[in-house]
Specification:
The protein is mainly alpha-helical and about 90 residues long. The protein has four helices and four strands; from the N terminus they run αββαββαα. A two-stranded antiparallel ribbon has the order 1-2. Strands 3-4 form a two-stranded antiparallel sheet.
Length: about 90
């Protein structure tokens, strides 16, 4: 029963996630695309609280530069240069 509830919570969380999130300095983040096509695991960025992914602690310039670029390097996809994300 607990597994069914967890699966339903994850499905609900994914259905409410915004497709495109506008961040500072002209950065747009395709949240839905990263969930389904690229990373696939919420826990790759989000800290789990009581079995449900939540906020990203420390989210900001330093976190994004380190985490996003590192992930793009690992998957060999996505921008790794400034103008790849910062589009004005």
């Amino acid at each position: 029963m607990k597994r069914i509830v967890l699966v339903l919570l994850l499905i609900a969380a994914n259905s409410f996630a915004s497709d495109i999130i506008k961040l500072k300095k002209g950065v747009s983040f395709n949240h839905l695309g990263h969930q389904s096509e690229k990373v696939g695991l919420c826990s790759a960025c989000h800290v789990e609280t009581e079995g449900t992914p939540g906020k990203i602690p420390g989210l900001g310039k330093e976190w994004a530069h380190k985490t996003c670029i590192e992930c793009h390097d690992i998957f060999e996809k996505g921008p790794t240069k400034c103008n790849g994300c910062h589009i004005s």
